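Lecture 7, part B: from sequences to assemblies.

Below are the input chains for today's worked example.
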Amino acid sequence: MPFWFARGLRRGVVTTRYPARSDGSAAFLPTPPAFRPRQLTRQTADRLVAVCPSMALRRQDDVLIFDVGACTACGRCAEAAPDAVTPSGEFELATTGRSALVKKIPICGGTR
Amino acid sequence: MNPNHGTAGQDTAEVARQLRDKIAAQFGRSLHIRTLDTGSCAVCEQEIRLLSAPHYDLHRLGFFFTPAPRHADLLLATGPMIRAFDLAARKTYEAMPGPKVVVATGACALGGVYRADPFVHGNIGEVLPVDVWIPGCPPSPLALLQGLGVAVGRLAEQTPGLTFVVGDPSRGEA
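Predicted structure of the full complex, as C-alpha coordinates:
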Protein backbone atom coordinates (compact mmCIF):
# COMPACT_ATOMS: atom_id res chain seq x y z
CA MET A 1 0.00 0.00 0.00
CA PRO A 2 2.70 2.60 0.86
CA PHE A 3 4.42 1.59 -2.38
CA TRP A 4 1.33 2.28 -4.47
CA PHE A 5 0.71 5.56 -2.60
CA ALA A 6 4.27 6.74 -3.25
CA ARG A 7 4.06 5.63 -6.86
CA GLY A 8 0.80 7.48 -7.30
CA LEU A 9 2.27 10.68 -5.81
CA ARG A 10 5.37 10.42 -7.94
CA ARG A 11 3.74 9.68 -11.27
CA GLY A 12 0.26 11.01 -10.77
CA VAL A 13 -1.32 7.83 -12.05
CA VAL A 14 -1.17 4.26 -10.89
CA THR A 15 -2.74 2.77 -13.98
CA THR A 16 -0.63 0.42 -16.03
CA ARG A 17 0.18 1.31 -19.64
CA TYR A 18 0.04 -2.35 -20.44
CA PRO A 19 -1.10 -2.92 -24.00
CA ALA A 20 1.02 0.02 -25.21
CA ARG A 21 4.01 -0.66 -22.94
CA SER A 22 5.11 -3.62 -20.89
CA ASP A 23 4.15 -3.83 -17.25
CA GLY A 24 6.83 -4.36 -14.61
CA SER A 25 4.66 -6.61 -12.49
CA ALA A 26 4.60 -9.19 -15.29
CA ALA A 27 8.00 -10.41 -14.09
CA PHE A 28 6.41 -11.70 -10.86
CA LEU A 29 3.66 -13.74 -12.48
CA PRO A 30 3.75 -17.51 -12.27
CA THR A 31 4.24 -18.68 -15.84
CA PRO A 32 4.13 -22.04 -17.64
CA PRO A 33 7.42 -23.95 -17.76
CA ALA A 34 9.95 -24.02 -20.56
CA PHE A 35 12.03 -27.14 -21.12
CA ARG A 36 15.69 -27.90 -21.89
CA PRO A 37 15.56 -30.77 -24.40
CA ARG A 38 19.21 -31.74 -23.77
CA GLN A 39 18.46 -32.33 -20.10
CA LEU A 40 15.29 -34.32 -20.75
CA THR A 41 15.47 -38.09 -20.75
CA ARG A 42 12.52 -40.43 -21.12
CA GLN A 43 12.70 -41.15 -17.40
CA THR A 44 12.70 -37.45 -16.52
CA ALA A 45 9.83 -36.86 -18.91
CA ASP A 46 7.80 -39.68 -17.35
CA ARG A 47 8.47 -38.23 -13.93
CA LEU A 48 7.23 -34.83 -15.10
CA VAL A 49 4.11 -36.42 -16.61
CA ALA A 50 3.42 -38.20 -13.31
CA VAL A 51 3.92 -35.07 -11.22
CA CYS A 52 1.68 -32.79 -13.34
CA PRO A 53 -1.64 -32.32 -11.54
CA SER A 54 -3.57 -30.88 -14.48
CA MET A 55 -2.76 -33.43 -17.23
CA ALA A 56 -0.88 -30.83 -19.23
CA LEU A 57 2.00 -33.19 -20.07
CA ARG A 58 2.17 -36.51 -21.85
CA ARG A 59 4.96 -38.36 -23.60
CA GLN A 60 4.92 -39.89 -27.07
CA ASP A 61 8.18 -41.75 -27.65
CA ASP A 62 10.84 -39.03 -27.79
CA VAL A 63 8.45 -36.10 -27.73
CA LEU A 64 7.02 -34.48 -24.64
CA ILE A 65 3.63 -33.01 -25.51
CA PHE A 66 2.93 -29.91 -23.44
CA ASP A 67 -0.58 -28.48 -23.47
CA VAL A 68 -0.03 -24.89 -22.36
CA GLY A 69 -3.79 -24.37 -22.11
CA ALA A 70 -4.07 -27.06 -19.46
CA CYS A 71 -1.04 -25.88 -17.49
CA THR A 72 -1.78 -24.18 -14.17
CA ALA A 73 1.82 -22.92 -13.72
CA CYS A 74 1.99 -24.66 -10.33
CA GLY A 75 5.75 -25.22 -10.68
CA ARG A 76 5.76 -28.88 -9.63
CA CYS A 77 7.62 -29.94 -12.77
CA ALA A 78 10.27 -27.28 -12.16
CA GLU A 79 10.59 -28.60 -8.63
CA ALA A 80 10.84 -32.22 -9.80
CA ALA A 81 13.56 -31.54 -12.40
CA PRO A 82 15.08 -28.11 -11.80
CA ASP A 83 17.86 -28.62 -14.38
CA ALA A 84 15.43 -29.48 -17.19
CA VAL A 85 12.54 -27.14 -16.44
CA THR A 86 12.47 -23.39 -15.81
CA PRO A 87 9.64 -20.85 -15.81
CA SER A 88 9.15 -19.49 -19.33
CA GLY A 89 8.14 -15.97 -18.32
CA GLU A 90 5.44 -15.95 -21.01
CA PHE A 91 2.01 -14.72 -20.00
CA GLU A 92 0.63 -13.31 -23.27
CA LEU A 93 -0.78 -16.64 -24.32
CA ALA A 94 -4.27 -15.85 -25.59
CA THR A 95 -4.96 -17.51 -28.91
CA THR A 96 -7.77 -18.05 -31.40
CA GLY A 97 -6.74 -21.63 -32.13
CA ARG A 98 -6.75 -24.14 -29.30
CA SER A 99 -4.22 -26.37 -31.09
CA ALA A 100 -1.67 -23.52 -31.09
CA LEU A 101 -1.35 -24.08 -27.34
CA VAL A 102 -0.19 -27.69 -27.70
CA LYS A 103 3.59 -27.68 -27.94
CA LYS A 104 5.91 -30.53 -28.83
CA ILE A 105 9.10 -30.63 -26.77
CA PRO A 106 11.83 -32.87 -28.20
CA ILE A 107 13.52 -35.19 -25.72
CA CYS A 108 17.20 -35.10 -26.60
CA GLY A 109 18.82 -36.48 -23.45
CA GLY A 110 18.76 -40.11 -24.62
CA THR A 111 17.08 -42.98 -22.78
CA ARG A 112 19.42 -43.12 -19.80
CA MET B 1 -21.35 3.02 -68.17
CA ASN B 2 -18.97 5.21 -66.30
CA PRO B 3 -15.42 4.78 -67.60
CA ASN B 4 -14.09 5.87 -64.23
CA HIS B 5 -16.23 3.36 -62.37
CA GLY B 6 -13.29 1.39 -61.03
CA THR B 7 -11.43 4.37 -59.65
CA ALA B 8 -14.64 5.92 -58.38
CA GLY B 9 -15.32 2.72 -56.46
CA GLN B 10 -11.85 2.85 -54.92
CA ASP B 11 -12.37 6.50 -54.02
CA THR B 12 -15.68 5.64 -52.40
CA ALA B 13 -14.07 2.85 -50.45
CA GLU B 14 -11.33 5.21 -49.32
CA VAL B 15 -13.86 7.85 -48.23
CA ALA B 16 -15.92 5.22 -46.47
CA ARG B 17 -12.80 4.02 -44.63
CA GLN B 18 -11.88 7.56 -43.59
CA LEU B 19 -15.43 8.19 -42.44
CA ARG B 20 -15.43 4.94 -40.46
CA ASP B 21 -12.11 5.87 -38.82
CA LYS B 22 -13.47 9.31 -37.99
CA ILE B 23 -16.61 7.88 -36.44
CA ALA B 24 -14.53 5.39 -34.49
CA ALA B 25 -12.24 8.18 -33.25
CA GLN B 26 -15.17 10.44 -32.37
CA PHE B 27 -17.33 8.02 -30.44
CA GLY B 28 -14.76 5.45 -29.55
CA ARG B 29 -15.53 1.79 -29.89
CA SER B 30 -16.76 0.20 -26.74
CA LEU B 31 -17.42 -3.42 -26.08
CA HIS B 32 -19.56 -4.89 -23.35
CA ILE B 33 -18.55 -8.03 -21.54
CA ARG B 34 -20.79 -10.55 -19.85
CA THR B 35 -19.00 -12.97 -17.54
CA LEU B 36 -20.26 -16.52 -17.30
CA ASP B 37 -19.19 -18.78 -14.44
CA THR B 38 -19.64 -22.41 -15.45
CA GLY B 39 -18.46 -23.93 -12.19
CA SER B 40 -15.25 -22.03 -11.67
CA CYS B 41 -13.49 -21.88 -8.29
CA ALA B 42 -13.95 -18.08 -8.44
CA VAL B 43 -10.27 -17.22 -8.73
CA CYS B 44 -10.73 -16.38 -12.42
CA GLU B 45 -13.59 -14.12 -11.29
CA GLN B 46 -11.28 -12.42 -8.80
CA GLU B 47 -8.83 -11.66 -11.59
CA ILE B 48 -11.66 -10.45 -13.84
CA ARG B 49 -12.87 -8.13 -11.08
CA LEU B 50 -9.33 -6.75 -10.77
CA LEU B 51 -9.64 -5.53 -14.36
CA SER B 52 -11.88 -2.69 -13.18
CA ALA B 53 -9.46 -1.74 -10.38
CA PRO B 54 -7.40 1.46 -10.87
CA HIS B 55 -4.19 -0.33 -11.78
CA TYR B 56 -5.63 -2.17 -14.80
CA ASP B 57 -8.60 0.11 -15.49
CA LEU B 58 -10.30 -1.84 -18.23
CA HIS B 59 -12.58 1.05 -19.09
CA ARG B 60 -9.74 3.15 -20.53
CA LEU B 61 -9.65 0.61 -23.37
CA GLY B 62 -13.38 0.83 -24.02
CA PHE B 63 -14.37 -2.44 -22.36
CA PHE B 64 -17.28 -2.47 -19.94
CA PHE B 65 -18.98 -5.15 -17.90
CA THR B 66 -22.68 -5.64 -18.25
CA PRO B 67 -24.98 -7.88 -16.21
CA ALA B 68 -27.31 -8.52 -19.15
CA PRO B 69 -26.40 -10.90 -21.97
CA ARG B 70 -28.69 -8.91 -24.26
CA HIS B 71 -26.34 -5.94 -23.91
CA ALA B 72 -23.17 -7.98 -24.26
CA ASP B 73 -20.83 -8.37 -27.23
CA LEU B 74 -18.35 -10.69 -25.55
CA LEU B 75 -18.95 -13.68 -23.31
CA LEU B 76 -16.09 -14.22 -20.87
CA ALA B 77 -16.65 -17.80 -19.76
CA THR B 78 -14.77 -19.41 -16.87
CA GLY B 79 -14.88 -22.84 -15.28
CA PRO B 80 -14.88 -26.44 -16.53
CA MET B 81 -18.45 -26.30 -17.97
CA ILE B 82 -20.55 -28.23 -15.48
CA ARG B 83 -23.13 -30.42 -17.26
CA ALA B 84 -25.99 -29.05 -15.14
CA PHE B 85 -25.19 -25.61 -16.56
CA ASP B 86 -25.64 -26.54 -20.24
CA LEU B 87 -29.08 -24.98 -20.60
CA ALA B 88 -28.13 -21.73 -18.88
CA ALA B 89 -24.94 -21.42 -20.93
CA ARG B 90 -26.82 -21.99 -24.17
CA LYS B 91 -29.57 -19.52 -23.20
CA THR B 92 -26.96 -16.91 -22.31
CA TYR B 93 -25.22 -17.39 -25.64
CA GLU B 94 -28.48 -17.25 -27.60
CA ALA B 95 -29.63 -14.12 -25.76
CA MET B 96 -26.57 -12.20 -26.93
CA PRO B 97 -27.01 -10.18 -30.12
CA GLY B 98 -24.59 -10.85 -32.96
CA PRO B 99 -21.81 -10.40 -33.76
CA LYS B 100 -20.63 -12.03 -30.55
CA VAL B 101 -17.36 -13.37 -29.26
CA VAL B 102 -16.87 -16.18 -26.75
CA VAL B 103 -13.67 -16.17 -24.72
CA ALA B 104 -12.78 -19.25 -22.67
CA THR B 105 -10.81 -18.23 -19.60
CA GLY B 106 -8.60 -20.30 -17.36
CA ALA B 107 -7.03 -23.75 -17.43
CA CYS B 108 -10.21 -25.68 -16.59
CA ALA B 109 -12.17 -23.91 -19.31
CA LEU B 110 -9.49 -25.00 -21.76
CA GLY B 111 -9.65 -28.68 -20.82
CA GLY B 112 -6.99 -28.79 -18.16
CA VAL B 113 -7.76 -29.75 -14.62
CA TYR B 114 -11.15 -31.53 -14.73
CA ARG B 115 -10.85 -33.31 -18.04
CA ALA B 116 -11.72 -36.72 -16.55
CA ASP B 117 -14.48 -35.52 -14.20
CA PRO B 118 -17.86 -37.08 -15.15
CA PHE B 119 -19.86 -34.11 -13.87
CA VAL B 120 -18.29 -31.59 -16.22
CA HIS B 121 -17.59 -31.36 -19.92
CA GLY B 122 -14.07 -30.33 -18.98
CA ASN B 123 -13.85 -27.90 -21.89
CA ILE B 124 -16.08 -24.94 -22.68
CA GLY B 125 -15.56 -25.56 -26.39
CA GLU B 126 -17.83 -28.61 -26.15
CA VAL B 127 -20.87 -26.44 -25.46
CA LEU B 128 -20.10 -22.95 -26.77
CA PRO B 129 -18.27 -21.92 -29.96
CA VAL B 130 -15.12 -20.48 -28.44
CA ASP B 131 -13.27 -17.78 -30.41
CA VAL B 132 -10.38 -16.97 -28.08
CA TRP B 133 -8.68 -19.13 -25.46
CA ILE B 134 -6.90 -17.52 -22.50
CA PRO B 135 -4.71 -19.99 -20.56
CA GLY B 136 -3.63 -19.52 -16.98
CA CYS B 137 -4.74 -20.68 -13.57
CA PRO B 138 -5.92 -18.04 -13.06
CA PRO B 139 -4.97 -15.85 -16.03
CA SER B 140 -3.54 -12.64 -14.58
CA PRO B 141 -5.36 -9.39 -15.39
CA LEU B 142 -2.56 -8.62 -17.85
CA ALA B 143 -3.17 -11.93 -19.61
CA LEU B 144 -6.89 -11.15 -19.66
CA LEU B 145 -6.21 -7.73 -21.17
CA GLN B 146 -4.10 -9.36 -23.86
CA GLY B 147 -6.85 -11.91 -24.47
CA LEU B 148 -9.46 -9.18 -24.85
CA GLY B 149 -7.11 -7.35 -27.22
CA VAL B 150 -6.78 -10.51 -29.29
CA ALA B 151 -10.55 -11.00 -29.21
CA VAL B 152 -11.24 -7.57 -30.72
CA GLY B 153 -8.31 -7.79 -33.13
CA ARG B 154 -6.22 -5.04 -31.55
CA LEU B 155 -3.36 -7.23 -30.37
CA ALA B 156 -1.58 -9.97 -32.24
CA GLU B 157 -1.49 -13.40 -30.70
CA GLN B 158 1.97 -14.61 -29.80
CA THR B 159 1.36 -18.23 -28.90
CA PRO B 160 2.05 -19.78 -32.34
CA GLY B 161 5.60 -18.41 -32.21
CA LEU B 162 6.43 -19.76 -28.77
CA THR B 163 8.18 -23.10 -28.39
CA PHE B 164 8.58 -23.44 -24.60
CA VAL B 165 12.03 -24.82 -25.30
CA VAL B 166 15.14 -23.26 -23.73
CA GLY B 167 18.34 -23.38 -25.73
CA ASP B 168 18.72 -24.58 -29.29
CA PRO B 169 16.39 -27.51 -29.96
CA SER B 170 17.70 -28.16 -33.49
CA ARG B 171 21.19 -28.96 -32.20
CA GLY B 172 21.50 -32.54 -31.10
CA GLU B 173 17.99 -33.48 -32.13
CA ALA B 174 17.85 -36.93 -33.66
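Note for the exam: The two ends of chain A are 51 Å apart (CA to CA). Keep this in mind when comparing with the next example.
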